[in-house]
């Protein structure tokens, strides 16, 4: 079974990191959150998963889905 692994943008000691769910190691580390979000979105488009963006305190700020959702929510932000 192929398990979906969403990509999270999380705070990191060296800036911001992209991490897949259930994986300890960061996929990439950047200086700014915007850079990390851009990288996560590129990867999510390729892998058809969701990007979950966190604030510095770890709470979820936003999310975007790039998967094959048969009933997608109406996205009023983009």
From TrEMBL:
It holds the Pfam family DUF2188. InterPro entries: DUF2188. It comes from the Bacteria. Residues 56-78 are annotated as: Disordered. This is DUF2188 domain-containing protein. It comes from Nitrosospira multiformis.
